[in-house]
Amino acid sequence: MNRNLLCIEDLENNPSSRVPVCLVLDTSGSMEGDPINELNEGVRLFYDAVRSDETALYAAEISVVTFGGFASRQADFSTLEHQPEAPQFYANGGTPMGEAMNMALDMLEKRKNEYKVSGVDYYQPWIVLMTDGMPNGSQAELSRSIQRTCDMINERKLTIFPIGIGEDADMDVLARFSPKRSPLKLQGLNFKEFFAWLSKSVSKVSQSTPGDKVQLDADGIKGWAEL
Amino acid sequence: MNWVTIQCAVQGRGHLSSGTPCQDKTFSIVKEACSACALADGAGSASLSHYGAEAVTQAICNYMAENFDLIINEEGAAVKRSILAFIADRLETLCNEKECAIKDLASTLLFVAEKGGKFIICHIGDGVIGYVKEGKVLVASHPENGEFANTTVFTTSSNAIASMRLIKGNLNQISGFILMSDGTETSFYNKRNKALSPSLAHLTRLASVCNPDYMSQKLNRTFEDLVKQQTSDDCSIVLMSRSPGSRGYMDFSEKDKCEFLGLANTRASRKRLRSFDSALMALQSWGTYRAIKHRLHLRGKKLDRILKRLDNANILETREDGRYKSALRAFFV
Description:
The structure holds two protein chains of two kinds. Chain A is of the alpha/beta class. Chain A has a single domain, classed as Rossmann fold (3-Layer(aba) Sandwich). Chain A has six helices and six strands. Chain A has a six-stranded mixed beta sheet. In chain A, strand 4 (126-131), helix 4 (139-154) and strand 5 (159-165) form a beta-alpha-beta unit. Chain A starts with 18 loop residues before the first strand and ends in a 21-residue tail after the last helix. The longest helix of chain B has 24 residues, at 49-72. In chain B, helix 2 runs antiparallel to helix 3 (76-98). Chain B has eleven helices and 15 strands. Chain B is of the alpha+beta class. At the A-B interface, loops of A face helix 5, strand 10, helix 6 and helix 7 of B.
């Protein structure tokens, strides 16, 4: 007997809503040694965690920009279904943070336009900014990127997670990128724990519906309670 | 004019795993010669939004039925204000009962009311309102989301009046209305083309002629098996269909009968319709295969083909004891 009134072919096949996440990572010379190794391991675990979560796998679109000597796009926005392997980072050069942030914001604008044209729904984008030092690229680029980031945050168009690594991280400049919540100082080189939290949070957001206030588990990541 | 309303709301997979009740609510009423139906999707994080959604759907249907004649002749902005004020009043009363804040009762709201050949449509928030005209499924009101997927406007939002849509008109060739929540949108609304699935025409037509209990049960099963598997959100729908006439299916034109049964609209098919009409007459009450065969004087193979086609058209009920019955509303010729 015909069990249902319709069959699966009668339904529309809309793409899942996306959560764009951009990792903007310091790979300058000062990250040489344990920090860059731990960062590589942390990002690899992040990719593994997202891949193993069915919802996050089809929802999270991850891009990676590094700043070590120059700003470099390591991975453009894509789900891990299409881009499964985490990039490998090497420490080298100075800290052009402003250039990297501007590159990330440009990529984000381009991706949002692509979503709109293709009829893909998306959630508020996230940028994770990690550094162990102070920016030494163009001052004008830095100021411009801070202004752009703050404007988007104030208009509720972006969430940023600024993370300082080690004692020499310039927490003041990180704070200038984040008008609504204080930057976090990573305890030791605990990248793994942070990226595990990040993948869980992406999964949570990708399942949220209108009116949901996504409560992020703030234990250990003080000051970040809700999006 | 006779309208039939079939509705269903199923708890989403996300809410099932978190123990959150189904926040989608639907309601319909026929009162004062007015048919009205409504659907509301409770806000995700509002703890009591399922109560708010339930209250506003019931209240607005009654309000529309009691005030249709006044509202249809009033100026649009005034109607919007009076509808929002009425909803706010109802939610305020509920706040006192539940001892909660008004935002805890937030929901979207979609409704349609019909009376005397005229209709009124209203939409706050996401979800879609569609209608069927001359067999085509069209969008009356698109979803109102913000930039992001998890944002929309609610009955309690301060900007509700700015984004609220209010439409009125003459029914003319409109044969059905469809209300759906954003969970259901995933399966029936093409986000790229901003168009509704043609399969909704089939559902509204079925709703117009099938036994309501059968149709509700089948619609619910279809939503459990298929529609809710496409999303983690709750899914709901209201189908409000114009009945073709007092004899339901028997009042369809030959062309419509062919389409309904999945037959090509040819002379040969139209000739075959007589066999189907006779079979549907015989199937107005439960009967065994043997009794139906005997009554219709048919060979087994021919009866098998007829039963298979009726089953494919979703208008045949089968019981475990091997009895058959038409799923159409009773008609007597």
